[in-house]
Design a protein that fits this description.
The chain is mainly beta. It has one domain (3-100). The chain has one helix and eight strands; from the N terminus they run H-E-E-E-E-E-E-E-E. It has one helix spanning 3-6; strands at residues 12-18, 21-22, 30-32, 36-40, 51-55, 58-60, 70-80, 90-100. The strands form three sheets. A four-stranded antiparallel beta sheet has the order 2-1-7-8, with no helix packed on it. Strand 1 and strand 2 form a beta hairpin. It starts with a helix and ends in a 10-residue tail after the last strand. The model has no long low-confidence stretch (mean pLDDT 86).
């Protein structure tokens, strides 16, 4: 396991909800990848050197049942309060506003 991908996670808490309904047992959705190659382009959003690097993912991955047509909010909250290594500490709160269209609808270009 890559230490940098999982460092501090043992002190983390995660919450998620869909349209205000809390998702349960998120801890059971923790997964780790194997190593893979990650390519970074010039002038990337991370402001890091371009090139191909060895990467590793460690996190929570949840698949939802298809949502009905309409507007939906998916909210994710995470906090890490590591008493041993405070540099790992952070709090984040994201809300994704989704607009689900029926699968049989036809979208036209203008």
């Amino acid at each position: 396991m890559c230490t940098c991908a999982s460092a501090g996670n043992e002190y983390g808490a995660i919450e998620a909800s869909v349209d205000g309904v809390k998702l349960k047992n998120l801890e059971s959705y923790k997964a780790q990848s194997g190593y893979f190659n990650f390519s970074n382009a010039d002038n990337n959003i991370y402001d890091s050197c371009a090139g191909t690097y060895r990467a590793f993912a460690d996190g929570y991955f949840v698949f939802l049942e298809p949502l009905p047509a309409g507007n939906h909010d998916v909210n994710l909250k995470v906090s890490v309060l590591n008493p041993i290594e405070p540099s790992f500490n952070y709090i984040a709160d994201w809300t994704y506003h989704l607009n689900v269209v029926p699968s049989n609808s036809t979208m036209t270009e203008t």
